[in-house]
Amino acid sequence: MQHVDPAVALHAVRHERGAVRLAGGVGAGGVGLAAIQMAKGTGATVLATASSDEKLERLKEFGLDHGINYRNDNWVSEARRLSGGRGVDLVVDSVGTTIAGSIEATGYRGRIVQVGNAGRAEDRRFDLSVLSQMNRSFTGVFFGGALMFEPQRGRPLVERLIGDVANGSLKVVIDRTYPLAEAAAAHAYIESRQAFGRVVLVP
Q1: Contact (CB, 8 A) for 15 and 90
Q2: Longest dimension (CA), the chain
Q3: What is the SS3 assignment for 15?
Q4: In whole angstroms, what is the distance from residue 51 CA to residue 162 CA?
Q5: pTM of the shown model
Q6: Distance between CA atoms of 172 and 30, rounded to whole angstroms?
Q7: Is the N or the C terminus of the chain less surrounded, counting Cβ atoms within 10 Å?
Q8: Are 49 and 24 in contact (CB under 8 A)?
Q9: How far apart (Å, rounded) are the C-alpha atoms in residues 27 and 175?
Q10: What does the pLDDT read at residue 23?
């Protein structure tokens, strides 16, 4: 599922080759790793944020062009600087608490696609007027909705992604595995922001 949502996100909007895309806030997580690889596959210049320089360096092998350490830098300002000052074309945001920044990071006709709420924001409201000022657009993506209303698209998409993983063109990174009995320890490890890729519970 973590690879399906970015795929839906990137296909939910029209994309031009050479566009600048930002995997906002989640570069080293499962969604971010998938989004980086898929965006690179479209010919985009890919930006992403992560919590350490070490993670950003590792992300280069998956297609990252420019990394932003959000603990050290203002990631919105850096995203705009790295896009030549005009703002990025597309942001894939799975954090939820960063929507305002994602909007600010985009340029004219920029697109923001939200694919989750990893930040567990209870209130994700924002001022819609900031979209119209620059002809921006905002799209929410939930794969369950696609399966319910467009099943003819959902199954082929999953089959294609499984094929991409099988042939190696799309990589899934497993950071650590935990027995189900140690679920609390697995969650603690995820919350520590040390993980790079997926953390898997094994029954």
Answers
A1: yes
A2: 51
A3: coil
A4: 29
A5: 0.84
A6: 8
A7: C
A8: yes
A9: 14
A10: 67
